[in-house]
Every structure is written in structure tokens, then in C-alpha cells.
Model the fold of this input.
Amino acid sequence: MITQPAVGGADSELVSASWTQPEAFSALFDRYSAMLYRYVSRRLGPEPAEDLVGETFLVAFSRRKSYDLAYADARPWLFGILTKLISRHHRSEAARYRTLLRAPVDQDVESPADRVAAGVTAQAARGKLAGALAALPAKDRDVLLLIAWGDLTYEEVATALGIPVGTVRSRLNRGRRKVRAALGDTNPMLEEE
Amino acid sequence: MMDDLDLLRDFGRELEHEPPATLARQRDRHLRVRPRRRWTGWWTAGLVAVATALAVAVPAVLVGGRAPAPPSAGGVGAVDVSGALNVLLIGSDTRDGDGNARYGPRMRGAGARSDSIVIVHLPADRGRATAVSVPRDSMVPIPRCGSSPARTDMINSAYDTGGASCLRTALEKLTGLRIAHTVEVDFTGFKSMVDALGGVEVTLPRAVDDRASKLRLPAGKSMLNGEAALGYARLRHYGDGSDVARIKRQAQLLRAMLDKVKTAAADPQRLRAFLGEVRAAVRTDLDLEAMYQLADGLRQTSVTFVTVPYAPHPRDRNRLQWKQPEARRLFDGLR
Done:
């Protein structure tokens, strides 16, 4: 997932500018709405994504005054809000993964070229991954996907979810262990650490 | 070598969708819909309650107790007040006219502002009326009316420049509701209605000595005449000085008035006098006959007070804008 580079100052500057000029907040939308959209579209599909992204910025805007300006990067903050919003859809998220377990992913959906080499392995693993994600407890899934799909660091996930880094690590490890277990029988290469 | 995270990332890419162009619609949502914040004009809601009670609930209770002989039909132009009905109530802050100047002499000639604007919706079965108060500082599109051009401005400017009929036109356009009648009450009208009731009794936790409203009252029970009741309704520097406390005082006043009305309703003589007073105290296109019919139909009606969902205006803290789609939904529900 590609993160847009920061143009025209840190996110925190935009947030503080929006305290007095609400319009400034739209720049934050320009910066991150596409990124957040892609992330939600992975977890919940494209239908609810648009509204959830809009709602994320709405919630963020209403809390802009409590934003800690020490954080130059607003992504963890936005992902944190988005994660909360996604949690209302946990049931449909799990249902979505279960559907993917049965039906193959539509190959007409754009597939980046750099993916082709690994494509074969990935396709074999897809059903198992979907099954593992569907079965994961919501909290572990949040952490795992914020790292794998949201490209956040451990520290950023901790900030996003308001939990200690140690908790991020333990949830991630638990999540990965289950994913590996699901993949295990077909992919012995995954033994590591 | 692919590890589980790589496989997961790959899987994610397959599931990903590119944002559609319509995502842009969400861009400025925060400018349209913003969190509710305490607004200093809150007290209007209280005045609104009083005005509504005076213009609708009071006659309703009056007639509900013991109906006076209905005045003879108004001949030509008798108004049909059956069926679902929307009535616009305007609490005006005019300082012009008899007696009003004392409540702000320097503002004399400054025109009338609608201090409180309420749309009272009466369903056809009259079971449950809804009084929707419209914050006067709402920035809204105002259609051309009389000599004033179409513009976006505060809703009460429609009244200021064009009177009740222009305000009515603007609101009909905004809400999609047909507003059948208007009722205007000003400071003097409020006063004379209280006086017609023989005053109202309130109980005060501590004495009032307010220079702004020229009101002095001892702690404990007091009988307020029209003048004092108005001062009490407008009182700001008392208690914790909050708008909420003020609204509570206005509600207290309202209850006291309704109690008084119920007592008065037992005496047909006083009742008739009061109804005539109400008619004289308000400016309305409803004649006495129509008011009577309306009031008669409202005997069992309960009134729900709501305010148009609003948020601070993005360009001006001291202005408001209607929250959409909530506001639209509210008015759609009244159709």
C-alpha cells in the first residue's frame, strides 16, 4: 500500500491549522483518503468503504482539538479511528472472508505486476488465509492487518489502538501463529524464527 | 522467500479496490456536518416554548376546560383549520409600537427581528403536535421577497426586511412544508397575556436584583405581573448565569402560566376575556373563530418541542447552519 508523501508540512500542522480554519482539514483528506479507502476496501469491500472513509474524517475533525501535535504523522490517529468504525462491521468482515474461502478472487481486479511471480503461491494460499482471517478474534485481526495492510509500525499500531507496544507484539504473534497454522500444511517454507 | 506476512500482503492487494471519483464527495463533509457545540443563543428555545404555549397550548387548555360559546363565524374569508396544518409562530423583539420601546429604547426604529421562530405542525388527527424551533441565526438561502433580493443570510433577516410573509415564504422553501398561518407575539403581547391571567406565581431560591432587566424580587414565592414575568423570562444574570438555567426558568414560568390558565378556564367570564386578550396580543391571520376551532381541536394534543438540527457555521462561529440530512429528515417526517 502506497502512502502519499507529505506535501506542504507535517500532518500535525494541518490539524492545528484546522483548529481555527476548518477548511485546512480537507488537505488531510486529500493526503490520506485514498490510502484509507484502499485499506477499508480490503477489509470490507468497496461498498461501505466510501462512507467509512468520510466518517473517519468526520470523527477525526470533531476530535482535532485533542490531537497530540507531538505526532507529526496523522496516519496512526486516522487508522485508529477507522479501526473503531470497522469494528462495527466485524461480522460482515468475517462473512466476507468466508465467502472468499469458497469463491476465487475475481482475477479481473487489477493485479500489480510485481505480484505475478508470487501469484501462484498466493493463490494457493488465498483460501487458507481467508479462513484464518475469518477465524481470528477481532482484536488480533486489527493488529495483524494494520501491520500487513496498513503498513504501520508496531509503535504506530500501539498509538492507533491506544495499547502498549508489548500488547501489539503479543497480538501480532498470536495472529501470525494462527495464519501460519492455517497455511502450515501447504507451505513448510514458513518455518522461521 | 514468502513468509506469512508477505502472503497476507499479496492477498490484501488482490482484495483492494481503487477509490472511485465519488470519494471526493466525502472531502468537505466535516464542513457541512459538525459536532454540536454549546451555542449562546440556546435560550431562544425557552422563549420559543413560552411563545408556543401562549399561541397554541394556552387557547387549547382554555377551550379544553370549558368551551366558551364559539364566536360567530367570521363571514367572508373564514379560515379552514381542519386537516394537517403548519402554523408559523414568531416571537418578535420589536422595540417599536406601544410599550415595546422600553425594552430597548435605543433600538427603536431598528426594525423587528424574529427572536424566536417556531413551526408548529399539527397532524390531521391532532394527536401529537410538534413545535420545531428554528434558530434565528441559521444561515439559509432566502428567496427574493418584496424589494429584498434573493441571498444567503440569517433566517431572521427575512422577517426583518420583509415581515412575517417573507419569513413564511423562506421557510416554506427551506422545509418543503406548506405553512398555512402565522402568529406573531411581541414583548407587549406577552406581557398583556400574563396580565390577562392575573399574573403568574413563581418560587425563587434566592432574591433577584437585576439591573439589566430591572427586576427585583424577594426569595420565595412571588406573584409576577406581565412586566415582571417578561423580565424573569429574559433574566440572564441569575443563578449560575447559564443558558440552561435560563431555559429552566422559562419552563417554570410556562408551567405556572398553564396552571393559571387551567384555573381560569373554570370561569367562563375570565376565560372569554383571556381569549380576547390572546387575540389582541398577537398579530395573526387567524381570526377568533379560526383560533377557537384550532384550539378546540387541540384539546388532547400534546406538544413535542424540537429544534432544527444545527451546527456552527464554518465561516462564522456566531452563525449556524442546518445539519443535513437530519434537518431535511425532520421536515420530511412532518409532511
